[in-house]
Recover the amino acids of this structure.
């Protein structure tokens, strides 16, 4: 229970248990705890939900600039907020928006204006950067055509791992935990996972290459490239949300198409650099 003064100013909080077990002549002020977590009416609903989740509260009081109590927000209220915000974050990460927002903001043309820029940027990057890398290493492909067949595998794995790590990192940051602690635990965990997955998948791909009687240098190049790509993707998926959180931006604003495009370029660069070192 929250205790207020005659003017309605929040004085502190009192537990029902303390009230029941205290002697009848005890004054409320003697049982009062002045350490109360509060929120303002101007705060975003997602921030209020994070406060309740972080401190395991059943409710949080809303006060104005004079500490006058205006009301409370209960844990039941924030459950709907978490559901709505999670749906919004998923749509934003996919480079899309909610259907209700699309209808209210102008329909098909407005939706096109919000989603198309991500894909235009992705197309330009893929053509100029990824295409430039392929052109730069075209002599390697002319000598070892078999390297071309492994490109879809590398770019697909890189994009999938990066999106997965970014989603996990974004969720951990949205729980309200301190940035340093979240970053340290998440990055170390994702990197360790990336190393293990990279080594396992790299070994499998290298084994397949050897089974098809490819030269040892090709098998080693593909396996090592896949291992490094998975590790790099796990790191990128963690680093980008952390960077946005440090800049006080919403980590969910990272677009899935852009993250996938970034990993396409990085995967090609890793693959062809290693191929040139070990083969050509």
């Amino acid at each position: 229970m929250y205790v207020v003064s005659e003017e309605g100013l929040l004085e502190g909080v009192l537990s029902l248990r303390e009230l029941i077990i205290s002697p009848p002549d005890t004054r409320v002020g003697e049982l009062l705890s002045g350490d109360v977590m509060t929120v303002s009416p101007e705060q975003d609903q997602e921030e209020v939900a994070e406060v309740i989740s972080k401190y395991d509260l059943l409710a949080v009081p809303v006060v104005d600039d004079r500490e006058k109590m205006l009301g409370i927000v209960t844990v039941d209220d924030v459950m709907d907020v978490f559901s709505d915000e999670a749906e919004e974050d998923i749509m934003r990460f996919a480079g899309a928006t909610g259907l209700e927002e699309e209808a209210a903001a102008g329909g098909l043309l407005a939706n096109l204006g919000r989603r198309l820029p991500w894909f235009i940027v992705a197309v330009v990057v893929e053509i100029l950067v990824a295409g430039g890398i392929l052109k730069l290493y075209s002599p390697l492909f002319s000598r070892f055509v078999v390297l071309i067949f492994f490109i879809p595998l590398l770019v697909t794995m890189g994009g999938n791992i990066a999106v997965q790590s970014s989603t996990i990192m974004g969720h951990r940051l949205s729980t309200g935990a301190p940035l340093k602690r979240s970053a340290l635990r998440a990055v170390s965990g994702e990197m360790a996972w990336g190393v293990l997955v990279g080594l396992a998948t790299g070994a499998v791909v290298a084994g397949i290459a050897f089974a098809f009687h490819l030269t040892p240098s090709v098998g080693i190049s593909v396996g090592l490239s896949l291992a490094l790509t998975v590790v790099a993707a796990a790191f990128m998926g963690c680093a980008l949300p952390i960077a946005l959180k440090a800049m006080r931006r919403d980590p969910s604003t990272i677009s899935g198409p852009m993250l996938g495009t970034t990993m396409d370029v990085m995967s090609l660069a890793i693959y062809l650099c290693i191929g040139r070192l070990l083969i050509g």
Observations:
- The first strand starts at residue 2 and ends at 4.
- The chain has a mean pLDDT of 78.
- The two ends are 74 Å apart (CA to CA).
